[in-house]
Design goal:
Helix content of chain C: over 70%
Order of helices and strands of chain C: EHHHHHHHEEHHHHHHHH
Number of strands of chain C: 3
CATH architecture of chain A: Orthogonal Bundle
Shape of chain A: globular
Helix content of chain A: over 70%
Strand order of the largest sheet of chain C: 2-3
Shape of chain C: globular
Oligomer: heterotrimer
Radius of gyration of chain A: 19 Å
Number of helices of chain A: 11
Order of helices and strands of chain A: HHHHEEHHHHHHH
């Protein structure tokens, strides 16, 4: 292996963190929605993709990237609210699988709608000018934009933490994640809480999609691969756990990155192997709800 | 009184059996939705292409150009008045679906020939179905495997380039010009490996130093974990062997990582659609190969005629590389039909083997042992300034003339002489 | 008040509600439908595909409809069956009657492997875990290029003639091919019917209805789940093997997540927990895809929308809704 230095490993680690950041954002939304609504959102990848496309649309209207950062999660979250209210709400009480199946069908519809509206081939998404180029982070040159992604993710995590820990609404969410029945008994309008949590989760997914757009361009199918990988993250971290999603997301990013260094063709398999190991050793993941297991 | 037990909706076992046997008799009778056995007036060419999916645009272009070839054949009188017809089907870029569609085309539509598709896997699937049924298949997309003895049959023809030819042409150009230290970034599937194999073989003659072949899984969206390692190798040339979306993403990210500042990026195949989708920035400075560029009209009358026909039929649009293959694939088959004077398979095969043609890009012919079309390869570079029109995205910087020596030998492919 | 209930006079035919009759003879009726099927399909290859996907869905239905476990990784079972059968023919030159059992075996083995890893999880987790494990299988088969052909798929599964006790059947003939495939599917119907009617079948449904009670009654729930999953693998493996023979290739896409998703849609569309539902679902799904593709390239939109409508309003699926209406 020519040129395998400590610098390269450090650089690779950083790349893993940047990769993991996107996973984290994506998985947090999934975990939030599952923790609160007990719904596995199979359309999460589609929301992620829609976020990127909303960004394209805003740019085409003359907006810039910074406006997108605010507008995209708002727009996607709003759409998420509508989906929860009219498509998922009717299915509560029917069995744990029905919302899953519905979101599964929804993803097909969303992807095809985007294809109709924006075409099949996808769009390039240019990195905003200020964030172009690479900086010397000590161990080598690293793209500035990826540092921004790490930073933006950290910001969202902080905001989320503050929201969950310091506001009364956040308290309700945490209580609801712990025990939905009690929350209802205490007189809280659970329906409204679900609505907002679903909107929040999908908004974060859309935001993740926007952040990912300059990295890989935008195509209608961009949501499906990340969904499978995000499931690995949620299994490893534990469904319903935010902390688990963060930890597992970064771990998965680093695992992919490191495997790419030594055996790139096994990079994809490595994360599923990781999941298999976790399943055998600790089926509920790092911080998952043990109650879901037999 | 005994109650009448017969409830509404109940039937006696006897009655049911009677109905069932009537149904069975009906099924066994000649009454069937039958395929017309009346002599088909039209010469049918099945055309399975991926109208749905990421290459829908290329596929539409293939259909358009193929329709042009059909129209030209019919306008010239067809085969003694007998007209040709294109039967298009969507194979969804899925080999299983392509196999089903081919079965439909052959068994139900009773096509005389099949031309298509896009993606090596799909072609090989179509080929497997057609060769078992003795139908000529002219493949119009890249594949090395289709020339090899295991997949080949006398019914198999290959109008498109193959990875070996394409990477050879680009290698011959680049290795002479940009340096000897070469790194490879390759998509980990058959096509990627075939391209690298071609590069390495050409590279031997130039004495290149292989710094390493880094493989990435197909469908990778993030190359950030691979690019630092590549830059650390300090190559003169970075040879990126992948296609479609993978290529668009990696070129974009390589640009972001500043790879182009120190290294010349080459790719075996640059497609028109990818260049348009990824934009000028990502493709800037990248050199690659292709089978056709409309700009050839300055050089060949046949290209001009093809371009003019296409412009006339489609509102001033110009054909792309994939379009040209659609045209060529159908036109050669029809030309052979005309030469043979019949649609009889063996006669058409003989006519195709004997065909020497110049239909859209200069002189071509089919090599006998593997029915590979021997043709030129264009070495192109992306351009973003001085564009004559919106289709002028490439500049031809060199041409590899048709030469059988550039192909893998018949023995190498497993054909017994 | 003083009615004397007299026994049925023996000379009369005993009226049986058609619904009960159908349940009793479900395998035979299903087989009959299969036999006349190609007459009404646009082309025979499509009819064969419907049979194959119907069988695939039948296997899936065993786990989801009857046992209540949602698996998103059934493509691994279907695909392994296809590859085992295909490799047996293309690489080893084995005859069809050896290759098909090998396909079934492949399905059984892969189901055992995935089952052992996944069966400890439940509900939602099971769906995600099976999906991820199936993706793992996909990547592994993808890498084993020498065996599977990798991305190019496995070609060369060329069976021209099926020789049964001296009778030579032309496998290239579309109708012959259909009936050979139908023969296997019909056999599968009967086997499935026996399984469901057996005591084990009752245990499966008991576990679905109330797991705690089933366990309290002394049934080993985990073992039941695993066995059911493995049996399901056998049916899906057979379907895969038939697919390999029908198309003469095995595409790598057969192992991809989309194929797992398709069978979920088909089962739901047709009606889970019903015997004939999966077949109906396969027919509906593939016909829809085929017809809609003819007039628009946006068939995924229509299929996805119909699926959502079914989830929202017709959770029993087409067949399930029909038979619940038709119940006397």
């Amino acid at each position: 292996m020519a040129g395998l230095s400590l610098d390269l490993i450090a650089l690779q680690l950083f790349a893993g963190l940047a990769l993991g950041a996107i996973y984290v954002l994506f998985a947090i939304g999934l975990s939030l929605i599952f923790g609160m609504l007990t719904v596995v959102n199979f359309a999460h990848g589609a929301f992620y993709m829609v976020g990127a496309y909303v960004g394209i649309y805003i740019l085409s209207l003359g907006g810039n990237f910074w406006i997108c950062l605010i507008a995209v999660p708002l727009a996607v979250g709003l759409f998420g609210l509508v989906v929860e209210r009219f498509l998922i709400r009717p299915l509560y009480g029917r069995g744990i699988d029905y919302p899953l199946l519905l979101t599964f069908g929804l993803s097909y519809v969303m992807v095809e709608l985007i294809r109709i509206l924006f075409g099949k081939t996808g769009y390039p998404f240019d990195t905003p000018e200020i964030l172009q180029g690479a900086v010397d982070i000590g161990v080598g040159y690293f793209p500035l934009y990826r540092l921004f992604v790490i930073g933006a993710t950290a910001f969202v995590l902080l905001a989320l933490w503050l929201f969950l820990e310091k506001t009364s609404f956040g308290l309700i969410i945490r209580a609801g994640a712990r025990d939905p029945q009690i929350v209802r008994v205490l007189g809280v309008d659970v329906g409204r809480v679900w609505l907002i949590v679903f909107g929040l989760g999908t908004a974060i997914a859309g935001f993740a999609g926007l952040l990912a757009a300059p990295l890989q361009g935008v195509i209608p199918e961009m949501g499906s691969t990340i969904l499978a990988e995000a499931f690995v993250v949620t299994v490893v971290g534990g469904m319903g756990s935010i902390g688990g999603a963060v930890l597992a997301g970064l771990l998965v990013g680093v695992v992919v990155s490191m495997t790419s260094l030594f055996a790139p063709e096994m990079a994809k398999v490595s994360i599923f192997a990781l999941m298999a190991v976790v399943l055998i050793v600790r089926p509920q993941g790092f911080f998952g709800r043990a109650g879901l297991m037999s | 009184m005994t109650k009448n037990i017969a409830r509404s909706g109940s039937i006696s076992r006897r009655r049911l059996l009677a109905t069932v046997s009537a149904g069975a008799a009906l099924a066994a009778s000649p009454f069937r939705i039958n395929l017309l056995q009346a002599q088909e007036a039209n010469i049918k060419i099945g055309f399975p292409v991926p109208l749905t999916g990421p290459y829908g645009t290329e596929a539409q272009d293939q259909v358009r150009a193929a329709q042009l070839a059909i129209a030209e054949f019919n306008d010239a009188g067809g085969l003694g008045g007998r007209k040709a017809e294109l039967v298009v089907r969507d194979d969804k870029l899925n080999p299983g679906e392509a196999a089903t569609r081919t079965l439909e085309l052959v068994e139900k539509e009773k096509v005389n020939f099949v031309v298509g598709s896009l993606s090596a896997a799909v072609q090989l699937a179509i080929n497997n179905v057609t060769k078992e049924r003795g139908i000529i298949f002219n493949s119009i997309s890249q594949s090395d495997a289709i020339n090899e003895a295991a997949d080949f049959s006398k019914y198999t023809f290959h109008e498109a380039l193959n990875p070996h030819l394409t990477s050879g042409a680009v290698g011959r150009y680049a290795f002479a010009k940009f340096g000897k230290k070469v790194a490879f970034l390759t998509a980990d599937y058959a096509y990627g490996h075939e391209m690298v194999r071609g590069f390495l073989e050409v590279g031997k003659a130039f004495g290149i130093e292989n710094l390493g072949d880094i493989r990435h899984p197909l469908g990778t969206t993030d190359f950030s974990t691979l690019l630092p390692r590549i830059q650390a190798l300090k190559p003169d040339i970075l040879c990126i062997s992948n296609f479609g979306r993978d290529q668009q993403i990696v070129l974009k990210q390589a640009t972001d990582f500043g790879v182009k500042k120190t290294t010349q990026i080459i790719a075996p195949l640059l497609s028109h659609a990818s260049r348009v989708a990824a934009g000028p920035q990502a493709f800037e400075g990248v050199i690659g190969g292709c089978s056709f560029y409309w700009g050839l009209e300055d050089k060949f009358a046949s290209t001009k005629a093809f371009n003019d026909g296409f412009r006339k039929m489609y509102d001033g649009k110009l054909p792309s590389d994939y379009g040209a293959l659609g045209y060529g694939g159908v036109r050669t088959v029809l030309a052979a039909v005309k030469n043979a004077g019949s649609v009889d398979t063996d006669k058409v095969i003989a006519a195709l083997e004997a065909l020497k043609y110049d239909f859209y890009k200069g002189p071509q012919y089919y090599r006998k042992c593997d029915h590979q079309s021997v043709q030129s390869v264009l070495v192109i570079q992306s351009k973003s300034k001085d564009m004559r029109n919106e289709s002028d995205v490439f500049e031809i910087i060199s041409t590899d003339e048709p030469n059988e020596a550039n192909l893998r030998s018949c023995e190498e492919l497993g054909h017994k002489s | 008040m003083n009615e004397i209930i007299q026994p049925y006079p023996q000379t009369q035919a005993v009226p049986v509600s058609w619904f009960q009759f159908a349940i009793l003879h479900r395998a035979s009726l299903a087989s009959l439908a299969v036999l006349v099927f190609p007459l009404v399909m646009p082309f025979t290859a499509l009819a064969a595909n419907i049979l194959i996907y119907g069988l695939y869905a039948l296997g899936f239905n065993l786990v989801y409809g009857y046992l209540g476990l949602l698996s998103f990784g059934h493509a691994a079972l279907f695909g392994t069956g296809a590859y085992f059968c295909g490799i047996a023919i293309a690489h080893f030159g084995l005859p069809w009657f050896a290759a098909i059992p090998l396909g079934i075996l492949g399905g059984l083995l892969m189901a055992a492997l995935i089952g052992v890893l996944a069966i400890r999880t439940r509900g939602i987790y099971f769906a995600m875990v099976t999906m991820a494990l199936a993706q793992c299988v996909y990547y592994l088969f993808y890498q084993a290029v020498d065996w599977t052909g990798g991305e190019n798929g496995l070609r060369g599964i060329n069976v021209r003639v099926i020789d049964i006790f001296g009778v030579r059947l032309d496998f290239i003939n579309p109708l012959t091919r259909y009936y050979v495939i139908a023969a296997f599917v019909i056999a599968a119907f009967f086997v499935l019917s026996r399984i469901l009617a057996s005591p084990f079948g009752a245990v499966i449904e008991a576990v679905r209805e109330n797991e705690t009670r089933a366990r309290a009654s002394g049934y080993d729930v985990t073992r039941t789940r695993l066995i059911t999953f493995v049996l399901s693998g056998g049916f899906c493996g057979l379907a895969g093997a038939l697919q390999a023979l029908h198309l003469s290739i095995v595409p790598i896409e057969i192992l991809y997540y989309d194929t797992s998703g398709e069978v979920v849609m088909i089962a739901l569309l047709g009606g889970m927990g019903t015997f004939f539902g999966p077949m109906v679902g396969a027919a509906a799904f593939l016909l829809l895809e085929n017809l809609v593709s003819l007039w628009t390239v946006h068939w995924q939109l229509i299929v996805g929308a119909i699926f959502m409508i079914c989830v929202l309003f017709f959770p029993a699926g087409i067949w399930g809704t029909l038979i619940s209406r038709g119940k006397p």
